[in-house]
Protein backbone atom coordinates (compact mmCIF):
# COMPACT_ATOMS: atom_id res chain seq x y z
CA UNK A 1 0.00 0.00 0.00
CA UNK A 2 1.27 3.45 -0.85
CA UNK A 3 2.13 5.50 2.23
CA UNK A 4 -0.42 8.21 2.98
CA UNK A 5 1.87 11.22 3.05
CA UNK A 6 -0.37 14.01 4.26
CA UNK A 7 -3.19 12.61 6.38
CA UNK A 8 -3.93 9.41 8.32
CA UNK A 9 -6.42 7.18 6.50
CA UNK A 10 -9.25 7.94 8.93
CA UNK A 11 -9.39 11.47 7.56
CA UNK A 12 -10.16 9.98 4.13
CA UNK A 13 -13.08 7.85 5.23
CA UNK A 14 -15.78 10.35 4.24
CA UNK A 15 -14.11 11.42 1.00
CA UNK A 16 -15.42 10.04 -2.28
CA UNK A 17 -13.22 9.53 -5.32
CA UNK A 18 -15.21 9.01 -8.53
CA UNK A 19 -13.44 7.38 -11.48
CA UNK A 20 -14.71 7.76 -15.04
CA UNK A 21 -13.11 5.44 -17.58
CA UNK A 22 -14.56 3.19 -20.27
CA UNK A 23 -12.17 0.42 -19.19
CA UNK A 24 -13.66 -1.56 -16.25
CA UNK A 25 -10.25 -2.96 -15.32
CA UNK A 26 -8.85 0.56 -14.83
CA UNK A 27 -11.86 1.57 -12.75
CA UNK A 28 -11.59 -1.50 -10.55
CA UNK A 29 -7.83 -1.18 -10.08
CA UNK A 30 -8.05 2.48 -9.09
CA UNK A 31 -10.98 1.75 -6.79
CA UNK A 32 -8.91 -0.83 -4.93
CA UNK A 33 -5.91 1.52 -4.80
CA UNK A 34 -7.86 4.33 -3.16
CA UNK A 35 -9.91 2.09 -0.87
CA UNK A 36 -6.60 0.89 0.55
CA UNK A 37 -5.87 4.54 1.32
CA UNK A 38 -9.14 4.79 3.26
CA UNK A 39 -11.25 6.57 0.63
CA UNK A 40 -14.73 5.74 -0.55
CA UNK A 41 -14.79 5.10 -4.29
CA UNK A 42 -17.29 4.94 -7.13
CA UNK A 43 -16.82 4.55 -10.85
CA UNK A 44 -18.70 5.09 -14.08
CA UNK A 45 -18.07 3.67 -17.54
CA UNK A 46 -19.71 6.48 -19.49
CA UNK A 47 -20.45 10.18 -19.15
CA UNK A 48 -24.22 9.82 -18.69
CA UNK A 49 -23.77 7.44 -15.77
CA UNK A 50 -21.17 9.74 -14.24
CA UNK A 51 -23.33 12.88 -14.47
CA UNK A 52 -26.26 11.09 -12.88
CA UNK A 53 -24.07 9.81 -10.05
CA UNK A 54 -22.45 13.15 -9.19
CA UNK A 55 -25.84 14.85 -9.18
CA UNK A 56 -26.76 12.52 -6.32
CA UNK A 57 -23.48 12.91 -4.44
CA UNK A 58 -20.69 15.35 -5.16
CA UNK A 59 -17.30 13.60 -5.23
CA UNK A 60 -14.29 15.04 -3.44
CA UNK A 61 -12.02 14.03 -6.33
CA UNK A 62 -12.73 13.10 -9.96
CA UNK A 63 -10.42 10.95 -12.09
CA UNK A 64 -11.47 10.96 -15.73
CA UNK A 65 -10.03 9.42 -18.87
CA UNK A 66 -9.51 11.89 -21.70
CA UNK A 67 -11.36 9.51 -24.02
CA UNK A 68 -14.45 7.81 -22.62
CA UNK A 69 -15.51 5.79 -25.63
CA UNK A 70 -16.85 8.43 -28.00
CA UNK A 71 -17.08 11.02 -25.19
CA UNK A 72 -14.63 13.82 -24.49
CA UNK A 73 -13.11 13.72 -21.02
CA UNK A 74 -12.21 17.40 -21.21
CA UNK A 75 -15.92 18.21 -21.54
CA UNK A 76 -16.45 16.40 -18.23
CA UNK A 77 -13.53 18.30 -16.73
CA UNK A 78 -15.02 21.61 -17.79
CA UNK A 79 -18.47 20.58 -16.50
CA UNK A 80 -17.08 19.79 -13.06
CA UNK A 81 -15.18 23.07 -12.97
CA UNK A 82 -18.29 25.08 -13.87
CA UNK A 83 -19.93 23.78 -10.68
CA UNK A 84 -17.42 25.88 -8.69
CA UNK A 85 -17.20 23.30 -5.92
CA UNK A 86 -13.41 23.20 -5.90
CA UNK A 87 -13.39 19.50 -6.76
CA UNK A 88 -9.93 18.44 -8.05
CA UNK A 89 -10.05 16.67 -11.42
CA UNK A 90 -7.28 14.37 -12.64
CA UNK A 91 -7.11 13.39 -16.31
CA UNK A 92 -5.87 10.00 -17.52
CA UNK A 93 -4.29 9.47 -20.93
CA UNK A 94 -4.24 6.09 -22.65
CA UNK A 95 -0.88 7.19 -24.02
CA UNK A 96 1.23 10.33 -23.47
CA UNK A 97 0.04 13.29 -25.56
CA UNK A 98 1.71 16.62 -24.87
CA UNK A 99 -0.93 18.79 -26.56
CA UNK A 100 -3.71 17.03 -24.68
CA UNK A 101 -1.92 17.47 -21.37
CA UNK A 102 -1.45 21.18 -21.97
CA UNK A 103 -5.11 21.59 -22.92
CA UNK A 104 -6.25 19.67 -19.84
CA UNK A 105 -4.10 21.74 -17.49
CA UNK A 106 -5.42 24.96 -19.05
CA UNK A 107 -8.94 23.67 -18.48
CA UNK A 108 -8.20 23.24 -14.78
CA UNK A 109 -6.94 19.67 -14.36
CA UNK A 110 -4.95 19.11 -11.19
CA UNK A 111 -2.66 16.69 -13.03
CA UNK A 112 -2.50 14.60 -16.20
CA UNK A 113 -1.27 11.03 -15.86
CA UNK A 114 -0.57 8.63 -18.71
CA UNK A 115 -1.11 4.89 -18.62
CA UNK A 116 0.36 2.67 -17.36
CA UNK A 117 -0.57 4.59 -14.24
CA UNK A 118 2.12 5.35 -11.69
CA UNK A 119 -0.05 4.61 -8.66
CA UNK A 120 2.30 6.24 -6.17
CA UNK A 121 2.36 9.46 -8.16
CA UNK A 122 -1.42 9.47 -8.51
CA UNK A 123 -2.02 8.92 -4.79
CA UNK A 124 0.50 11.64 -3.91
CA UNK A 125 -1.10 14.05 -6.39
CA UNK A 126 -4.56 13.42 -4.97
CA UNK A 127 -3.27 13.89 -1.42
CA UNK A 128 -1.63 17.16 -2.40
CA UNK A 129 -4.83 18.43 -4.05
CA UNK A 130 -6.86 17.56 -0.98
CA UNK A 131 -4.30 19.20 1.29
CA UNK A 132 -5.28 22.53 -0.26
CA UNK A 133 -8.96 21.84 0.46
CA UNK A 134 -8.61 21.27 4.17
CA UNK A 135 -7.89 23.26 7.28
CA UNK A 136 -6.46 21.15 10.10
CA UNK A 137 -6.76 22.20 13.70
CA UNK A 138 -7.66 20.73 17.07
CA UNK A 139 -10.84 20.59 19.07
CA UNK A 140 -11.28 22.66 22.23
CA UNK A 141 -9.49 20.05 24.31
CA UNK A 142 -6.57 19.91 21.88
CA UNK A 143 -7.01 16.18 21.58
CA UNK A 144 -7.44 15.38 17.89
CA UNK A 145 -7.19 16.88 14.42
CA UNK A 146 -10.32 18.23 12.75
CA UNK A 147 -10.96 19.26 9.18
CA UNK A 148 -12.88 21.89 7.28
CA UNK A 149 -13.97 20.85 3.79
CA UNK A 150 -14.10 23.49 1.09
CA UNK A 151 -11.23 25.48 2.61
CA UNK A 152 -9.63 25.82 -0.84
CA UNK A 153 -12.66 27.80 -2.03
CA UNK A 154 -12.06 30.56 0.52
CA UNK A 155 -10.15 33.70 -0.36
CA UNK A 156 -7.13 34.61 1.82
CA UNK A 157 -9.24 37.25 3.61
CA UNK A 158 -12.09 34.78 4.18
CA UNK A 159 -9.60 32.35 5.70
CA UNK A 160 -8.40 35.04 8.08
CA UNK A 161 -11.97 35.82 9.07
CA UNK A 162 -12.74 32.14 9.61
CA UNK A 163 -9.72 31.79 11.88
CA UNK A 164 -10.75 34.79 13.96
CA UNK A 165 -14.34 33.56 14.19
CA UNK A 166 -13.18 30.18 15.46
CA UNK A 167 -11.02 31.99 18.01
CA UNK A 168 -14.24 33.47 19.37
CA UNK A 169 -13.69 37.05 18.29
CA UNK A 170 -16.66 39.30 17.57
CA UNK A 171 -17.13 41.14 14.28
CA UNK A 172 -15.85 44.31 15.94
CA UNK A 173 -12.76 42.58 17.39
CA UNK A 174 -11.99 40.79 14.12
CA UNK A 175 -12.43 44.01 12.17
CA UNK A 176 -10.07 45.85 14.48
CA UNK A 177 -7.41 43.15 14.07
CA UNK A 178 -7.72 43.06 10.26
CA UNK A 179 -8.16 46.81 9.85
CA UNK A 180 -11.60 46.58 8.25
CA UNK A 181 -15.12 47.45 9.36
CA UNK A 182 -17.39 45.07 11.34
CA UNK A 183 -19.83 45.23 8.41
CA UNK A 184 -17.11 43.94 6.05
CA UNK A 185 -16.35 41.13 8.52
CA UNK A 186 -20.06 40.26 8.46
CA UNK A 187 -20.00 40.06 4.64
CA UNK A 188 -16.93 37.81 4.70
CA UNK A 189 -18.54 35.64 7.38
CA UNK A 190 -21.64 35.19 5.25
CA UNK A 191 -19.53 34.12 2.26
CA UNK A 192 -17.55 31.68 4.39
CA UNK A 193 -20.77 30.16 5.68
CA UNK A 194 -22.13 29.79 2.16
CA UNK A 195 -18.96 28.14 0.85
CA UNK A 196 -18.65 25.74 3.78
CA UNK A 197 -22.35 24.89 3.79
CA UNK A 198 -23.11 26.35 7.23
CA UNK A 199 -26.70 27.43 7.92
CA UNK A 200 -25.77 29.83 10.72
CA UNK A 201 -22.84 30.81 12.92
CA UNK A 202 -23.47 27.96 15.34
CA UNK A 203 -23.45 25.52 12.43
CA UNK A 204 -20.19 27.06 11.20
CA UNK A 205 -18.60 26.51 14.61
CA UNK A 206 -19.83 22.91 14.61
CA UNK A 207 -18.23 22.31 11.20
CA UNK A 208 -14.92 23.74 12.36
CA UNK A 209 -14.82 22.27 15.86
CA UNK A 210 -15.99 18.73 15.11
CA UNK A 211 -14.31 16.13 12.96
Description:
The protein is α/β, with parallel strands linked by helices and 211 residues long. It has 2 domains: 9-131, Rossmann fold, CATH 3.40.50.2300; 137-209, Arc Repressor Mutant, subunit A (Orthogonal Bundle), CATH 1.10.10.10. 46% of the residues lie in helices and 15% in strands. It has 9 helices and 9 strands. A 5-stranded parallel beta sheet has the order 2-1-3-6-7, sandwiched between helices. β1, α1 and β2 (40-44) form a beta-alpha-beta unit. α6 crosses α8 and α7 packs across α8 (182-196). The longest helix is centred in the last third of the chain and has 15 residues, at 182-196. It is elongated, with a radius of gyration of 19 Å. The two termini are 25 Å apart. Residues 1-7 and 138-146 have low confidence and may be disordered.
Q: Major beta sheet, specifics?
A: 5 strands, parallel
| Beta-strand residue fraction | 15-25%
Order of helices and strands: EHEHEEEHEHEHEEHHHH
- Strand order of the main beta sheet, please? 2-1-3-6-7
Number of helices: 9
Mean pLDDT: 81
**Low-pLDDT ranges:** 1-7, 138-146
Strands, count = 9
The domain count comes to 2
CATH class of the largest domain: Alpha Beta
Radius of gyration: 19 Å
Separation, N- and C-terminal Cα atoms: 25 Å
Shape by Cα distribution: elongated
What is the helix fraction of residues, given as a range?
Answer: 40-55%
* Secondary-structure class: alpha/beta
The CATH architecture term of the largest domain is: 3-Layer(aba) Sandwich
The CATH topology annotation of the largest domain reads as: Rossmann fold
CATH superfamily of the largest domain: Response regulator
